[in-house]
Amino acid sequence: MNSKTCLVVDDSRMIRRVASRILKELKFETEEAENGQDAIDRCRIDMPDAILLDWNMPIMSGLDFLKQLRKEPTGDKPVVVFCTAERDVLKITEALDAGADEYVMKPFDSDIIESKFFQAGLI
Amino acid sequence: MRGALSLNPTYYEALKRLTLELAGVNLGSDHAFLIETRLSALARQEGYDSLDDMVEELFNTGQNRLAVQVVSSLLERDTHFYTDRPSLEKLEHVVIPAIYSSRKGGKIRIVSFGCSSGQEPYCIAMMLDKASDKFPDVKFEIVGVDYPSTALDRARAGRYTHFDVQRGLPIRDLITYFDRKAEDWIIKDHIRQAVKFEETHLLSNLDSLGEFDIVVFRNALPHYSSPAQVRVLRGLSSLVKPLGYLLLGTDETLNHINYGFDTLARQPNVFRKREEKIEIIEDPNIKKPTDRKTFEKAKRRLKDMGELGNSKSA
Fold it and tell me: Is A89 close to B166, i.e. CB distance below 8 A?
């Protein structure tokens, strides 16, 4: 099987499950992390092709994770799609400046995830 | 949100025939659910307790206004931003450079037919705004055309939901060209003002729209009946200036009738109009469906076929 890998990072187990289900339908192999630190640890072991990333999480936020990720060896490789309830234009700009490739505003559905992953060149 | 009202199944066929008569469009066999969903909002807006009441009144009184509203609701398309992006990119990378190189300046008029809630003409406006350095001294005039509908009202307002702006629209375009207003996003004034919207039936006389350098008509042609396709394409052809372009959707063709166009090499859905003017011969067998007479005829025909029973007593 030649599918791409996606790390779903969110402190909500429900969101991780829903997102993983959608991504599996899009032929991604998924892994899950519940905060930024957990995600960094996983990326150091195996860098995924894509990361679906929440913003507000305990221990390490999505934004801090992204800044750290881009400093890691091969940390420029994953396509990062933020997936957050933050809708403020300044916040979106901050995420893009930190190296996000696309941005999903919650709530989302499968069409939105597919559309954003398509725009990010993942499918 | 309230659910869809139900419609007596005997009316499905009558509404499909009405849509074919008035708009030349074949609704598919899978449209029963869509008919109920789309007409429910209209029935509530018009103050009817049930869909059957509205449809009965439509056929019993022959209200042209209601007929147009019903057909417009049935034909409303669920459009996204940048649907069929490769076709739109041909505008920027093939069609407009070709016109620009022959002209260097002046005005380029572009029309998007079947624009529904306006995503396509706004995408064209955003695309040209980003490419403005490539085409200095050119003024673009973009017109979106569709049947009168609530979708066209939304297009004029340029206001889109959280879900609308996340289907097809890159995030950088969203923050560059939209302002957030409560739960919705509104397109910025300079883009909204770059697009005009016109209510016109594709099968009616299109002369009032004037001529265009580029006509964009994507992914709608297959929905028309064969005679209506001929009429639609003749109408669109008459709108394109000599050496102007017709852009269809990916994989769409002119079906062996060229309507005065040549296909561009390696661009199978882009057609360039020949310089010489061709005479369009009207086919007397194809109806002009927008006036009350046609509606009355359609209504009589349906009654004759026994399709307009009294659903309450049925």
Answer: no
3-state helix/strand/coil string of B107-156: EEEEEEECCCCCHHHHHHHHHHHHCHHHCCCEEEEEEEEECCCHHHHHHH
Predicted ipTM beyond 0.85: yes
The domain containing residue B292 runs over which residues?
10-75+288-304
Assess whether B186 and B296 both reside in one domain: no
Q: How confident is the model at residue B194 (pLDDT cuts 50, 70, 90)?
A: very high
Question: Per the domain annotation, does A123 fall within a domain?
Answer: no
Cβ separation of A104 and B166 shorter than 8 Å? yes
Residues of A in contact with B162 (CB under 8 A): 87, 105, 107
- The domain that contains B236 carries what CATH number? 3.40.50.150
For chains A and B, count residue pairs whose Cβ atoms are closer than 8 Å: 34
Domain coverage including residue A69:
5-118
Task: Indicate the SS3 state at residue A20.
Answer: helix
Q: Tell me how close the Cα of B26 comes to any Cα of chain A, in angstroms.
A: 27
Residue of chain B whose Cα is closest to the Cα of A106:
B162
Element (H, E) at A100: none
pLDDT tens, position by position, B37-70: 888 888 888 899 898 999 888 888 877 788 888 8
Which of A88, A89, A123 would you mutate first to test chain B, the one with the most B CBs within 10 A? A89
